[in-house]
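Expect chain and fold; thus:
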Amino acid sequence: MTVPANLAAPLLAGAEVLVLFATTDLALSATALNTATLAALGGSWRTGAVIRVKVLPGVTLIAASAAAACFSFGAEFAGNTVIFDNQGTVYGRGGTGGQGGTGVYRGGGGGGGVPLGAGGAANTGSTVGKPGGTGGIAVQTAVPLQVSNAGVIAGGGGGGGGAGGGGNGSGTGTPTAGATATQSTAGGGGTTTGNSATYANAGGTGGALGVAGGTGKRPQDFGATSGDAAGAGGAAGAAIAVAGGAVTYLVRGTIYGAAP
C-alpha cells in the first residue's frame, strides 16, 4: 500500500486524501486500513476531508482471519466523506471446516471455505461432528460509505461441517482432515473408512464465495444403523456489512454475499 507524499499541513477542508492499495496481500492485517489512512492524513485523525480508499486493478486483498473484515471503516472515519474505490478484488477470508466426530465411524473434517479457509481436523474427543466456521466479511462500515466497485467484493464462504462419528460395526474407521480452500475452489470434506468401505467427502464441502458451507454426513448416511449427528456448515460472510453506518453505491459492480 502507498500514500501520497508531502501532504500540505494543515489539510484543507474538502481536500481529497488518497489511500492507495497497490500490492496483492493474501493475509491483510486488520489494522492495515487504519495505518495507511493515518499516514495519508499526516498522522492524526481529522474531519472535513474526502478520504478515497482505492484498490488498484489486478490487486487481490484477503483478510488475514475470518474473525475480522478485510476493510473495516470504523468510527474514526466519521466527519469525513469516505469513498471506497475498488478496482481489484477484496475478499473476506473463508471459514474453517468443522472437526469430525470420533467413534466406530470416525468422521472426516469439513473443508475450508473460499478463499483460503482451512480444512477441519479429522476427528475430536466427541462423537458429534463440529460445525464449520463462519466466513469473514469483506467490507464493514460504521460510517456513511460511498462504494464505487469496478472489481469484485466477496464475503468468505462458510466452512464445511465435520462428519458425525459413532455407529455400529467392527470397522474402527480411518478419517482424514478436510482440505484447505484455494483462492477460487472450496476445500472438499475429509473421508472416512469403516467396515471396509470408504466414504468420500464425509465432511461437508466448504462454501464458495459468499455461500454457506455444506453439512457433514452422519454414519446413517452410509448405511449404518446408529451414529451421531454431523456438524452444520458455517454461514457465509457478508460482502458488505453495515454496523451503524450506511452504504451508497456509485457503482455496485460484482458482489458475492450479503450486501445492503
About this structure: The first helix runs from residue 32 to 40. The CA atoms of residues 29 and 239 lie 18 Å apart. DSSP finds one helix and 15 strands in the chain. The longest strand covers residues 16-21.
